[in-house]
Design goal:
alpha/beta, Rossmann fold, 6-stranded mixed beta sheet, 8 helices, 26% helix, globular
């Protein structure tokens, strides 16, 4: 499955509104960590080691968070815990108002989208449009289920909004890494989640591809006002201009957390990375560099 799309289909983009998930009661929080600790077994040391230590964190609908820190700080562990891939050794985790494992939240993937640093390898003959439609059922085998004309139109609209209108009929395997990441964001959004997790989504992208991806991420704030996003990165240059909050992690503990303009400061970033850092903020975008002559 996944043959080409006609020229007429590629030109036609339906004028449909974005449709977030319909809920009876919108949760007050998208993510809530209360004294969360996560440990893992170290084979060489023959003991458990701490990955996260007593993390308290709240993300509300419509907020766009950055998780920033050096390698091994615990950023990906945080996302894995939200997605139900990591089990806390202490504390509690609530996602969209429900505890992980509770009725209605047995599979967090039904309620959130997860974009990883390396794009997924999918069926080689699938078109970009089919990859997005595949997100409805979540499996290649179930592609034919739950598809309607409305779903088809919504998939086209999502690809257009994310700058992929010219890729509808192109095979996913023939797309660049940056194009694949934007296609996978559309795939995640086809289920109308209320939470989107992005784990270093710009890894390996050239400058143009990075900027196109960040532009696509920024567009979500306008199109999906209740959607909460969390983006993991090492570099401030990889944050979208719509970022509202930030949490800085070092060795599994929070260095600073809160409103982005109060959190991304020279003092906090220097403490987070362990070197003197200067931050530049222009046009809604950040950049960071070590202070000249102050590295030992």
């Amino acid at each position: 499955m996944g043959g080409g799309t006609s020229a007429a289909q590629r030109r036609y983009v339906p004028d449909l509104p974005m449709k977030p998930r319909s809920v009876v009661t919108k949760p007050d929080t998208a993510i809530e960590f209360t004294d969360v600790s996560v440990r893992a077994w170290d084979v060489l040391l023959s003991e458990s080691i701490s990955l996260l230590e007593q993390v308290n964190w709240i993300v509300r609908p419509g907020e766009h968070w950055a998780l920033v820190g050096p390698n091994g700080a615990g950023k990906t562990t945080v996302l894995g815990t939200v997605a139900g891939r990591k089990i806390p050794s202490a504390g509690s985790v609530r996602v969209l108002g429900k505890s992980i494992g509770s009725p209605g939240m047995r599979d967090p993937r039904e309620h959130l989208g997860f974009i990883e640093s390396t794009p997924k390898a999918l069926a080689i003959r699938m078109s970009s449009l089919d990859v997005v439609l595949n997100g409805v059922s979540g499996s290649v085998a179930g592609q034919g289920r739950r598809r309607t004309q409305e779903t088809h139109n919504q998939a086209i609209l999502l690809l257009q909004r994310l700058g992929c209108a010219d890729l509808l009929g192109r095979r996913y395997e023939d797309c660049s890494q940056g194009e694949r990441q934007r296609i996978l964001i559309a795939r995640a959004l086809i289920r109308s989640p209320m939470l989107l997790l992005l784990d270093e989504p710009t890894t390996g992208l050239d400058l143009e591809s990075r900027e196109r991806l960040l532009q696509a991420v920024a567009s979500l704030a306008a199109d999906w006002p209740d959607l909460a996003t969390v983006t993991v990165t090492h570099r401030l240059e990889e944050l979208a201009a719509t970022t509202t909050h930030a949490m800085l992690l070092r060795a599994g503990s929070i260095v600073a957390s809160g409103c982005v303009m109060e959190t991304l400061t020279d003092v906090h970033l220097s403490a987070c990375f362990g070197i003197p850092i200067e931050i530049d903020y222009q046009g809604g975008r950040w950049a960071a560099r070590a202070r000249a002559g102050q590295l030992e």
